[in-house]
Specification:
Strand content: 25-35%
CATH topology: Rossmann fold
Distance between the termini: 29 Å
Number of helices: 10
Helix content: 25-40%
Number of strands: 10
Radius of gyration: 17 Å
CATH class: Alpha Beta
Number of domains: 1
Strand order of the largest sheet: 6-7-8-3-9-10
Length: 241
């Protein structure tokens, strides 16, 4: 497995948010992490990227423990985190936002420009907007920009936190198709997503968190057909908050 988490505990001060989470992500997979608001999904991603140091448990990436590493060390190992809310730098152009994603690699400007061209081939709309300021883009365009910036780190594992949040249904479909393409091109994805139905359609496997614990896991196609999953998380609106 590319990513292995065992018994992960994480806290915000005295409040324990994760109570022994264990999961695994194989090379080339899209694995979805689902659950209601406050279940611990985003906290799990933050613990992997070392934004929140775990209180206990182990996280191993490509066989190496992430214990004691700083966030920039985790990026250098091959893990990129695209956080919830997109966090585009408003005073910078689209192209400059993309280039910033390569900062941890310390590559030459020429190499960064070549890599930016490769990344923008995945997002043709962004190429036409390259000289626009990031804050002028629509929500969907900003989400694509955030993902493009993450890919500039050339990660083996891409952590995506709620990429469909606040987007129109047609835009969400485009985002999901892009994520599926990224995985087909060789980047492993751990996807935190509120739209459980769409997430399960593109994922190979999924884990469902409830109040900081794994409550359900399995193959994505099986979870889509699961009565328990439908009652608790899909329902008539097929959305998870």
């Amino acid at each position: 497995m590319l990513l292995e988490i065992d018994g992960l505990v994480a806290r915000y001060g005295a409040v324990e948010a994760l109570h022994g989470v264990s999961l695994a992500v194989g090379e080339g997979e899209i694995v979805s992490l689902l659950g209601a608001n406050g279940a611990g999904k985003s906290t799990t991603l933050k613990a992997i990227s070392r934004i929140i140091p775990p209180a206990s448990g182990t996280i191993r990436f490509a066989g190496r423990s992430l214990h004691g590493l700083d966030p920039e060390d985790v990026v250098a190992l091959g893990i990129a985190h695209v956080p919830e809310g997109r966090r585009i730098f408003p005073g910078l152009t689209v192209m400059d936002n993309v280039r910033l994603g390569a900062t941890p690699r310390r590559a030459s400007r020429a190499q960064i420009d070549r890599d930016a061209d490769d990344v923008l081939a995945i997002f043709p709309k962004l190429r036409t907007l390259a000289s626009k300021l990031g804050w002028t883009l629509s929500g969907g365009e900003q989400q694509m920009l955030a993902i493009a910036r993450g890919l500039m780190a050339k990660p083996r594992l891409l952590l995506l936190d709620e990429p469909s949040l606040g987007l129109a249904p047609l835009v969400v479909k485009d985002v999901m198709e892009t994520i599926a393409r990224i995985a087909r091109d060789g980047t492993t994805v751990l996807l935190v997503e509120q739209n459980a139905h769409l997430a399960l359609q593109i994922a190979s496997r999924a884990y469902v968190l409830e109040t900081g614990r794994v409550a359900l896991s399995g193959e994505a196609h099986a979870l889509l057909q699961s009565d328990e999953m439908r009652r608790a998380y899909l329902g008539s609106a097929v959305r998870v908050g």
